[in-house]
Design a protein that fits this description.
Helix content is 78%, strand content 0%. It is mainly alpha-helical and 126 residues long. The protein has 2 domains: 10-63; 66-116, no CATH class. It is extended and about 55 Å long.
C-alpha cells in the first residue's frame, strides 16, 4: 500500500502543474472573450473540456495496459527533447543569434487577427 508520505510529493507536483495549465487556459479564454466575444470563447472552452473528458474516459483505462517502464522511457525522452529545444532557443537568444521575443508585437498582431471579421465567422456566433 502506498502511503501519502511517498505519493504526496508526486501528487502535489502533478496538481500544481495542472493548476498552472488551468490558469493559462483561463487567461486565453479571458483574452479571446474580451477581444472576440464571450459567447464563442465560452463555447470553445466548454467544447475543449468536453473533448478532454471524452479522451480521458476513452483512453484512460488503456494506460493500464502499457508497461510502466516503457511509459517512463517514452515520457523521459519527450521531456528531454522538449527541454533541449527550449535550451537551444534560450542560448541562441542570449547569444544574439535569434532575436528576443517581442511580446507587445505578438499581442498586437494576435489582437488584430482576432478583431478582423471574416466571412466564415460573421455568420456564426461571433
Amino acid at each position: 500500500m502506498i502511503t501519502w508520505i511517498h505519493a504526496g510529493p508526486s501528487v502535489a507536483a502533478a496538481f500544481l502543474g495542472s493548476l498552472v495549465e488551468c490558469v493559462e487556459a483561463a487567461t486565453i479564454v479571458l483574452a479571446v472573450g474580451t477581444v472576440r466575444g464571450w459567447r464563442s470563447a465560452l463555447a470553445g472552452a466548454l467544447a475543449g473540456v468536453a473533448v478532454l473528458a471524452g479522451l480521458v474516459g476513452l483512453l484512460g483505462p488503456a494506460l493500464s495496459t502499457i508497461p510502466v517502464s516503457l511509459l517512463q522511457v517514452v515520457i523521459g525522452v519527450l521531456l528531454l527533447l522538449f527541454g533541449l529545444s527550449w535550451l537551444r532557443k534560450a542560448v541562441m537568444r542570449a547569444g544574439g543569434v535569434m532575436p528576443l521575443r517581442d511580446e507587445q508585437r505578438a499581442f498586437a498582431s494576435t489582437t488584430a487577427t482576432l478583431r478582423i471579421p471574416t466571412a466564415t465567422t460573421s455568420r456564426r456566433w461571433d
